[in-house]
Amino acid sequence: MLAERRHQLILRALRSGGPAAVTDLSEQLGVSPATIRRDLVKLEEDGLLTRVHGGAVVEEGDQPFAEVAEMRVAEKDAIAAHAAAMVADGQSVLLDIGTTAFRLARQLHGRRLTVITSNLVVYEELADDEGIELVLLGGMVRREYRSLVGFLTEDNLRQLHADWLFLGTSGVRPGGQVMDTTVVEVPVKRAMIKASDKIVLLADAAKFPGTGMAKVCGPQDLDVVVTNAPVDPATRSSLEEAGVEVVVAGKVQA
């Protein structure tokens, strides 16, 4: 594999909250740990990542939506299916930005629901479903990530109420803190939390700990975490001590 292609794949894995350790990247790309270390040195010199003990991190939030949408699809679908089953017909659902929320929207077709979102891909998915009352929040468009942000989005949310919020994340720290890589999204996520009765975090295994420099909320703000794999003991303990139900969705077929 050419070095340039390896560099692209390394950055894609790190930006998506995937493996950050040298050993994990080596196994994923099928090259030696020494090769990965040289790649990380070069990428750090180019200002594209930061090396940490045993691996590297990328604190970016603007990876194109279409690129992220291709990653871990089966895992996201397992989480989405479980989340959709939590909602009763006639209820209102607030869907966050992100690709897992999009996979959840695909599970809602044919239901009698109100769906509120700042996620343009969710809007496009459900726009022709006449059984769903669809509310698109206003705001400034983040074209690369197909979302709406800013004070207009937050003002809209102050006028609304939802039975359920399905929240996305870039990472969950061992203390249960929910993080995001993009500061501009954080006020919108916080406004969504305030507008909702039940807060469900959708987080595949790569989000523990994942990435993120900005805190969205603490574990006390969550009701349920739906994931696709067992959560590490420290994080699970922090969540359960805060009264959060941790649900592992059905096993994904290889």
UniProtKB/TrEMBL annotation:
One of its GO terms (molecular function) is DNA binding. It comes from the Bacteria. Pfam families: DeoRC, HTH_DeoR. Keywords: DNA-binding, Transcription, Transcription regulation. Residues 3-58 form the HTH deoR-type domain. This is DeoR/GlpR family DNA-binding transcription regulator.
